[in-house]
Each structure stands twice: as structure tokens, then as C-alpha cells.
Write a structure and sequence with these properties.
The complex is a heterodimer of chains A (256) and B (66). By secondary structure, chain A is an alpha/beta fold. Chain A has helices spanning 26-36, 58-61, 79-91, 113-125, 138-146, 168-177, 191-200, 209-212, 217-237; strands at residues 5-7, 10-12, 16-19, 40-47, 68-71, 97-100, 129-134, 153-154, 183-185, 204-207. A five-stranded parallel sheet of chain A has the order 5-4-3-10-9. Chain A has a three-stranded parallel sheet with strand order 6-7-8. In chain A, strands 1-2 form a two-stranded antiparallel sheet. The longest helix of chain A has 21 residues, at 217-237. Chain B is mainly beta and 66 residues long. Chain B has one helix spanning 18-25, and strands spanning 2-5, 8-11, 32-36, 39-41, 56-64. Chain B has a five-stranded mixed sheet, with no helix packed on it. The longest helix of chain B has 8 residues, at 18-25. Classes of the chains: A alpha/beta (256), B mainly beta (66).
Chain lengths: 256, 66
């Protein structure tokens, strides 16, 4: 099926992207990622544990040859930190992709939009493929496009909140006005949330907590896989309009 | 020579290069990034970059995250 998502020449086979945080262990991570059918996973950049030198590493379970690795700048609250982590991520040597996060507040984990814009501009000039985690403000999304982002990743709801797509109308405006792939990142709680995002016309959905935090993460990963496929197909199939009153599905002609 | 490594104080008698340090720690160079005094060291320079007394070294890698 030729419906690949392409960002700066990079082809993504799956429109479900998954995070690798919050799983019970690496084996569960591996199984869930596999069940999701995704070909791109996000990772965080953190100090190597010098004291506890376990021989295991996430990339022993998630093969960088099989999956595209998308490092994030999670935990960064300043432009300076986000730049530092982005540059370190690139130097760890897999690609120029970065999921840029500049966080404004600990409770909501909403982006600091001013910082995000500044960091996007700087990193884009340095040749990064910047995928900024943003809010659902169409003005902000447009500014990110103009700053050189390769896509925009608006949140559906706060990270880990499971509240789903809180502002579908704003997402529709973003889809209409921003000429970049739009990937919903954060807030997806269950399969229908993912399907809704795709039915709106979003190009992909990134899910971490919604899968890792489920009672059965492997099963939920599979559910999300189908939801994203179904939502995308429904979007491309062209839904019926919403009407206030009924239109019969069976003919009047031939009635007794 | 004393330097700070990932927030911990480390003492060594050797003349440490990044390559040597990673080898002593059992860390594969291909999967990490190294920063010395806030400057990222290119992998090509690991073998020739010598750490000095008082340096602040950070070695990072990819971990699970959203």
C-alpha cells in the first residue's frame, strides 16, 4: 500500500510511532514495539550508569537497524539544555532526527512555546531534522513551520494524561494551515483516541504511556496499530457528513 | 589526575584518552556521546583527546523514553 509518510526524504512505513519509556523491562518494551508494528521509536538521552555497569542496553533489544531511533529532549526546560541534549543525541550517532521538547511547566509538561521556537530555529540551521513537541495552537504550529521544523507534533492532551484528543477543532485548523506532516504526540489513552486523530487527517500518532501504562501493554500496542490503520483508511475513504435528521437507508419503493 | 565523570569524582594515575576511559568502563563507543567541559567530543577524536585534571566529563546514551 503506497501511503508512506515521508519526512525530509525519510520513509516511515507505520503511522503509529511508539515511545520506549515506562515499560516493566526491556523485554516488554521489545514485545510491545513489535506488536505495535511501528518502525520508529523515541528514546531519551541520559547519563550512562557508571556505577551499575549492567551489560544490558535498550538498543540490545530495539535494533537500530530495524527501527528508526528518534531521540527526544525530554526533561529540558531551557533552550540551552534542549540544544545541549540535541547535539549530544546527534553525536551518539544515528541520525539528524530530534524530537524537540522544551518544557514550560512540571505539572502540565506543556511546551514553553517561546523556548521551543528559539530552539527549533537554531537546530534547523544546524541541519537537524526537527520534530517539535508543541501545543495545539495553530499560530504556534505555523511559526514552527516558518522556523524550519520538519513536522509539527501537537499534543492531544498532557503527556501521560490519557485524555485523548482534547481539541480536534484546533488540530483541523493546523492540518489546513500548516504545510508539514502533523503528528499527534501525547495524551492518547486508548485505541479510539488514536483513530480519532487519524480520522481528522493527522499524518501519524506517537504513543508511549497509552501503551506502556495499559494493563496489557502488548495487547494495547496491537489495538493501537489497528486503530491507526483504521483511522487512516477512514480518513482517506471520505466519511459521510453529519446530519441533524435521518435519511432512510432502505428504499420506499416496493413498500406494501 | 582527578576529574568529574557523570557527576562523580574520579581519580586515575593513567594518562586517559576518551578511548581509554571508555575501554576501562566497558562502554562501547558506538552508542554513546561524550562531552568534556561542555564541549562535545567527536568520535574521530576519542583516541587523541587527553583528559586533564579538573575536567568535567559526561557520557550519555539512549534510554527508554517517550
Amino acid at each position: 500500500m503506497d501511503d508512506k509518510l515521508i519526512i525530509r526524504g525519510i520513509e516511515f512505513r507505520s503511522r503509529l510511532w511508539v515511545g520506549t519509556g515506562k515499560y516493566k523491562d526491556f523485554e516488554e518494551t521489545r514485545k510491545a514495539v513489535e506488536a505495535s508494528g511501528s518502525d520508529v521509536v523515541t528514546v531519551a538521552v541520559r547519563r550512562v550508569n557508571i556505577i551499575d555497569r549492567k551489560s544490558e542496553n535498550l538498543l540490545d533489544y530495539i535494533d537500530p537497524k530495524k527501527y528508526k531511533i528518534l531521540p527526544n529532549t525530554a526533561g529540558c526546560y531551557t533552550v540551552e539544555d534542549a540544544l545541549r541534549y540535541s547535539r549530544l543525541a546527534r553525536e551518539a550517532g544515528i541520525s539528524d532526527l530530534i524530537k524537540l521538547e522544551v518544557i514550560g511547566d512540571k505539572k502540565t509538561l506543556f511546551p514553553d512555546t517561546w523556548g521551543l521556537l528559539k530552539a527549533t530555529e537554531i537546530l534547523a540551521k544546524e541541519g537537524f531534522i526537527v520534530l517539535p513537541y508543541s501545543n495545539d495552537d495553530p499560530i504556534m504550529a505555523k511559526r514552527l513551520e516558518n522556523a524550519g521544523a520538519a513536522a509539527v507534533m501537537p499534543l492531544g492532551a498532557p503527556i501521560g494524561s490519557g485524555l485523548g484528543i482534547r481539541n480536534p477543532y484546533n488540530l483541523k485548523i493546523i492540518l489546513e494551515t500548516v504545510n508539514l506532516p502533523i503528528i499527534v504526540d501525547a495524551g492518547v489513552g486508548t485505541a479510539s483516541d488514536a483513530a480519532i486523530a487519524m480520522e481528522l487527517g493527522c499524518d501519524a500518532v506517537l504513543i508511549n504511556t497509552g501503551i506502556a501504562g495499559a494493563k496489557d501493554p502488548i495487547a494495547m500496542a496491537e489495538a493501537m496499530k489497528h486503530a491507526v490503520i483504521a483511522g487512516r483508511l477512514a480518513y482517506k475513504a471520505g466519511r459521510i457528513p453529519k446530519k441533524l435528521y435521518a435519511t432512510a437507508s432502505s428504499p420506499i419503493e416496493g413498500m406494501l | 589526575m582527578k576529574f568529574t565523570l557523570n557527576g562523580e569524582s574520579v581519580e586515575t594515575t593513567d594518562d586517559a584518552t576518551i578511548t581509554g576511559l571508555l575501554r576501562d568502563l566497558g562502554i562501547e563507543p558506538g552508542r554513546v556521546a561524550v562531552e568534556v567541559n561542555l564541549s562535545i567530543i567527536k568520535k574521530a577524536d576519542y583516541a587523541s583527546f587527553h583528559l586533564k585534571d579538573g575536567d568535567t566529563v559526561e557520557i550519555v546514551n539512549f534510554v527508554g523514553g517517550g
